[in-house]
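Hey, quick one: can you model this chain's 3D structure?
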Amino acid sequence: MPMSSPMKSHTISIRVYYEDTDAGGIVYHASYLKFAERGRTESLRVEGFDHQRILRDFNIILIVKHIEIDYRAPSRLDDLLEVRTSVSALGNASLTMEQTIARENKELAALKVVIVAVEPEGRPVRIPPQLRQIFAASLPDQGQH
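Sure thing. Here's the predicted structure for all 145 residues.
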């Protein structure tokens, strides 16, 4: 399948709903994890690879192995947030993604997420060449790894 232009950095907009907030109307900390997951998923989708296709075509699942999040400022009910996603490192069976969640260019949270490719049984496997090409093209040094 021909690929679209290589992923560099991908941004989606997310509105904060009541369900995302605590009793005070401030976004609950776990909601940022959901927002980041949507950003990672959509960054793959624009390249033509949703999670169902990755499982069907390559018999792998991309799972979160490790995640770090630095909360820098609160967001609130009805805020319009931007989730920016990019790849910062690529290994044989894993990749690291950097994500920021911002409101009007003010960074609210920064995430570092390690993703591992595994078989449905849970054993790590090499990232397939088609996905590797997309991820490598988005590395800061233009894929020279």
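One thing worth noting: The domain at 9-137 is CATH 3.10.129.10 (Thiol Ester Dehydrase; Chain A).
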